[in-house]
Amino acid sequence: MKALPSSILKSSIFILSALAGSIALANESLTPKQSEEDVITLESVVVTGSRRAVKSPLDASAPVDIISEEQLKNTGTVDLSKALTILSPSFTFPLEPAGAFAAQIPAGASLRGLASDQVLVLINGKRRHTGAIFTRQNLANGRGAASVDLSLIPLNAVKRVEILRDGAAAQYGSDALAGVINIILKDDDDHGAVSYRFGEFSSGQGAQNKISAWKGFSLPNDGSLTFAIEYGNQDYANNTNPDNRRFYPLNYPNAEYLEANSPYRHWRFGSPKVKDQVNSVLNGELPLTDTIKLYGFATYGYKESVGQNFYQPPNTNTTLNQNPYYLARYPHGRITTSIYSLYDYAITTGVKNSDFLYGKVDFSVNYGRNKASQLYTNGINPSYGYDSPSDYKVGDNINEQTNVNLDYQKPINVAFFEEPITFATGLAYRREQYQQIAGDPIAYTRGPFYNPSPVIGVGVPEIYSGITDQDERKVSRDVFGGYFDVEAKILPKVVAGLAFRAEDYSDFGSTTNGKLSLKYDIDPRVSVRSTYSTGYRAPSITQLGFSAYSRQTVLQSNGVYQDVSQRTLLPGSEAALLLGGKDLEPEKSKNISLGFVFKPLKNLSATVDIYKIDIKNRILLSDNITGSIIKNAFAGTPYAEINNVAFFNNLLDTQTKGLEITTNYALDFEKYGQLKLNLGYSTNKNKITKTRDAVTIKGEVIPFESIAGRSTRGLIESASPKNKLTLGTDWTIDNWIITTHLRRYGEWSTIDNTRPAFDQTFSPQWIADLNIGYKPSMVKGLRIDVGAYNLFNSYPDRAINTSVGGVVKYSFNSPEGGNGTFIYSKLTYDF
After folding, report:
1. Which one of 30, 51, 120, 571 is most buried, by most CB atoms within 10 A?
2. Cα(464)–Cα(102) distance, rounded to whole angstroms?
């Protein structure tokens, strides 16, 4: 067996020694006489951000939002990402991206204006695996990020969601630069519900159907097993202009007639279609004795989404579209379609012992797998002749993750402290693996009819993220880590916490991070809190293992046909090193925050938090780089034919500053019901603070402006709304539940890469939602909901860069899209 690297051995020995010493020290301070009530339960770990058994998120030392099952239900949505967008002012992600690429974009999460892969997602406190693909589309907070797909978690399985808005890498590990989203699953042992929901946009498009059900079952010894499942589909939604281009050459037979009767004058470029989606969750626990409990949960998700690419008219100026085979097969042009099939499952199992060495121990193992397969339809590879297949696989991406965790927690009595110290420590092991499987050869090879001439020149169609036999690979890494965490009320009005985590990666080395938190209660109604932490985000295994290749034969301006080969380079590969690319390093952050908590009344609370996040070596997917520098760097190498490249790099640093406000108020009007009000506001500014150029193997400098153009830099600094305001009301009176939500998105901008005249700043936008629920008295358990998102049919500003024949009306970076009002109804039976 291959010996472990010395760095891993040293790290493991250090962590094991620290763990053993810590447990021994803790044991000396706890006597067997302590009562069960004095011991803080291990379930307090679920209160995200603190391992103390705090009574309320307002008592935590960092900002934590608790979103209840009832709040989620009253949004009327059945998608977790949409629900969090409605309820959380800090949560943002474009909800309705358009085009074929949109079919592959997971419904991720973004906190505090940072990328979706800079947020750690947990389920029941355990790390969730990310998706197997990232998007290259110019999405705010999304380009180059492989995020967790929240749409795979059925909303009816969720008991609550805890959002920690603070750097937490020292507590939970890699990725938690912006915060943590912890999804707590239902653990019911008796009840259940079944529901059906239908909705569509007021234009009659985008029809959605979803059937959901969940049921709790009792197990021996007061155990429980909860099962939830949902099935749904969604049709295309589109809001575009007619294509204003001329489709047919003037010398084409019947050109004028065909122009007037083209079936593609009003082609679709909108939200993708979801043909089938099945999500399910199983969550259970089984006590074996008074102190030992088995637990486990599993998820399974399948989704097939269909996105349409740009229309390619017959006169498209490429060799592919001018050759006679293409015209014969597609005389009116064509719209290619990308079908993504997503297979996702995960399983977690563990055991807890509440009486282990005078403390509590939790041992768990989880495994998650995400596979994304892409099928390209309505295509052609003319170099294989007229009978070239129209449908072919582009390839598979697979991401796997295994976690093994051992956590120990106990209280330590210290005579001069107000309360026992909450002490926690643990070990962690993570195995990550990423695999690329090539598509059908028809997608990336040349057939026997290839001949680069003006008459019958036939090239290979450009395939987005096409996986060739050169790109097939399997990469993996091992991560060993350990942590300790202490928190205590050290004075009558002061709570302090210290967390420390060390991890060793088999691919880029070791990292150590810490977090300090303080909370001071000025009086029972006013508190001040502050945290300082260092953090890191390791390059995702997807970013480390991804490469793709495409080639076209294109007619140049000089009348010569030339191959144009584009490659996304593997980080640290020979080709990347020739261009000055290096092995990816982890992002490193420093996070400082200061907050105030106000509780002037029992039913009224407010928080104000300001923060600053500095990130060094931020991971960036470059633009496609062309020109003489590329040719010179690759000259005389096996890569000489490549003239267009992109690669991941660490060539910039960023800073994020922001402010967040939350307010909650509950009123009881007695015979007029109960009213809950909540107000949220967040604002932040992202700024690139430092950039670095790349230097090729031959000493030529590639300026950072060529690596990240105006558009890419704009995605970081200005593509997200400058601020977001949320206002929600829940009014319950008799059998009625009336919920309203109002959101205001501040200004945001799109930056054109080469044409400043097409830069655009979009005006603030207001969006209102309404959900009316009714529980008829004659049928116990029945609930009827009707409602609307974007009730007043609000739209963002029209895009001035309409691209592709003027078809596009609205930027796909619009926070909630450009399809207008969505109307729905829902029938639920609880039992």
Report:
1. 120
2. 12
- The rounded distance, in Å, linking the Cα atoms of 795 and 789 is 12
Least-confidence region, from 151-160, 461-470, 738-747 = 461-470
pLDDT the model gives residue 57? 82
Structure tokens at 382: 């003319």
DSSP 700: -
Above pLDDT 70, what percent of the chain?
Answer: 89
Q: Which helix (H) or strand (E) holds 519?
A: strand 509-523
Query: Quick one: which of 334, 434, 389 has its CA closest to 130?
Result: 434
Cβ atoms of 122 and 179 closer than 8 Å: no
Of the candidates 576, 577, 612, the one whose C-alpha atom is nearest the C-alpha of residue 591 is: 612
Express each pLDDT in 639-691 by its tens digit.
888 888 999 999 999 999 999 999 999 999 988 999 999 999 999 999 999 99
Please report which confidence band the pLDDT of residue 24 belongs to, taking 50, 70 and 90 as the band edges: very low
- The answer to whether the beta carbons of residues 245 and 805 sit under 8 Å apart is yes
For the ranges 247-256, 324-333, 685-694, 760-769, which has the lowest average pLDDT?
Answer: 324-333
Tokens (6 digits) for 831: 């039992």
763 exposure class (CB count in 10 Å sphere: 0-12, 13-18, 19+): exposed
In the chain, the percentage of residues whose pLDDT exceeds 90 is 62
- The 8 Å CB, 24+ separation contacts for 772-776 are 772/736, 772/737, 772/738, 772/739, 773/74, 773/736, 773/737, 773/738, 773/739, 774/735, 774/736, 774/737, 775/735, 775/736, 775/737, 776/735
Q: Is the pLDDT of residue 146 over 60?
A: yes
Residue with tokens 């998608």: 79
CA Rg, the chain, in Å?
A: 28
Beta bridge partners of 226: 216, 283
The pLDDT of residue 38 is above 70: no
Average pLDDT estimate for 588-613: 96
CA-closest candidate to residue 133, choices 373, 333, 463, 299:
373
The pTM for the full model equals: 0.91
Q: Residue holding tokens 């998120």?
A: 57
CB 420 within 8 A of CB 413: yes
pLDDT tens digits for range 93-133? 777 777 666 767 777 778 999 998 999 999 999 999 999 98
For each of the domains in the chain, give its residue range(s) and CATH number, in order of start: 6-830 (2.40.170.20)
CB 247 within 8 A of CB 258: yes
Query: Which regions of 439-491 does DSSP assign to beta strands (E)?
Result: 473-491
Structure token digits, residue 386:
């007229």
Helix ranges (DSSP H) in 243-287: 255-260
Percentages helix, strand, coil for the chain (3-state, rounded to 5) are 15, 45, 35
Residue 234 has pLDDT above 50, yes or no: yes
The structure tokens listed for 750 are 């799109």
C-alpha span between 384 and 442 (Å, rounded): 8
Query: Average pLDDT, whole number, for the chain?
Result: 87
Q: How far apart are alpha carbons 114 and 178 in whole angstroms?
A: 7
* Average pLDDT of the segment spanning 508-512: 91
Query: pLDDT confidence of 27, banded at 50, 70, 90?
Result: very low
Whose structure tokens read 């695999």? 435
Edge-to-edge order in the sheet of strand 548-555: 548-555, 561-568, 642-646
Residue 16 is classified by DSSP as H
Distance CA 304, CA 277 (A): 7
Q: What is the 3-state secondary structure (H, E, C) of 539-586?
A: CCHHHHHCCEEEEEEEECCCCCEEEEEEEECCCCCHHHHHCCCCCCCC
